[in-house]
Amino acid sequence: MDPSVPLLNSSSSRKRKRAVVSAGFTSGLPYSVDFKSHQGCVNTIAFSPGDGKFLASSGDDMRVLLWDMYGDLEHTTPLHSFRGHRSNVFSLAFTADMRYLYSGARDSMILKYDLSQISTTDAPQPSNLPKRRFGLPSIPHSYPVDIIMHHEASIAQVSTHPSNPSLLLSAGSDGQLMLHDDREPSGPAGAIMGVTEWRGVTWNPVLESSFASCDSGGRVMLHDIRSAFRSGSSRFTAPSSTAVVNYTTSVSRRGTPYLAAPDTSALAFDKTGQMLGVILQRYFPAIYTLNDSIPIAYCTGRNSPDGTPLPPDEQTYRTSCTTKHCTFGPTLDTADTWFSTGSDDFRGYGWKIPAAETLRERRREVGYEQWQKGGDQEEVAFAERTTGPRYFAAELDTPAFRLEGHKSIVNSAAIHPVLPLVATAGIEKIVKLHAPTSITSSPAPTPPARILPATESAEARPRVLASLLSGPPTARDESEPDEDADTLALFDHLLRQDEQEDFCNIV
Q: Cis omega (within 30 of 0) on the bond before 330?
């Protein structure tokens, strides 16, 4: 790293830090370094709160790896490994006091890890966990101090309370959204029974009794913990009836006589708790203000970061094939806010989000009668009901940065809490850390992302079948950095299938 750029200089003044962070994101983050140790897809990444000392990552190899963000980033290796899951890990969350790290996985378990156990020696494996055969003696590891087994299916997301380390929310594909209190270990402190699979849940970082949720039916809701989980009657079959706000996600195309209800993928609050970002599958990320059910903006990749319109045939932001995660950042005291997520075009994306008042002024409302009179038949707008008004949210068509270098789908993009850094991960076995200046001995910027071949080669076809027939990751030398060509071929195949479908055909 160039020592003249005080990225990791904690003695910098607050004003200097704000200037460095803003300039860093504005630069486009053209440099990167790869964190290598995972043996399968990396499904989830999370920075620790506060100064972002740690980055946690996990995925198909079932290990949770902890990386030191204030060490030697060029030659970094995992500081610690947490084990215990029996299947793919999908979500990670640090507690506010930095004592624990939670993980949620496909095995329906939520594991609680003690961060004080980070050491240079291995901890013994508890007898109630399955024996795994990962031969990774060079990474110190430990096992969970608690196992939560109240869900009956995969855990989509876990979210820790912004100040109370005893409280945890979890969203599951079993249709249950649960509140956990480690002071009541006998069972969940409350649960909401949804009408379909939950996709995400997150606490409001400022209004600490509020949380937001989203599900596979396109429902995005704001809840108050005091009314969502009532004592004596904790389960509801219609969670939207207990929500404080039901956000509008349905979209309408002028030439189509029905509303399309997108599946949601994830959601996140900004640092003020007044703005909510939601990933809408087969559409675009939508931005809401807390108490307004209509989106004020949506984010696209219509232009390159320099403002140049992209040719119609050039790949750009898209999400349809895999679950995406998103974050706002940084949490540093600055007026600027960025929103970042992954994309099916093998990139991460980030948009600078203008003030809510500015976006609200740009939003337009058109009555149903006027909408029916005609116009561009491909025009799309948000709508609460079929015969109701149409809402044209402000389009943020120019990303502040596109994060390059990946060879397949990017599922996650996490913005560092205080530094101009963004971590991305997805189908590959790496976590890529993007920065405004070189953080390796090489001055070369990140190479462009791989472009999806237009057609499937004869060589790739047997790889697709091989990937479908393969089992979970097996023990192998952790120094083996090569990507799994079979897995890359499989997701190339899935992307080509998705491209045959209408991007806005999301009913």
A: yes
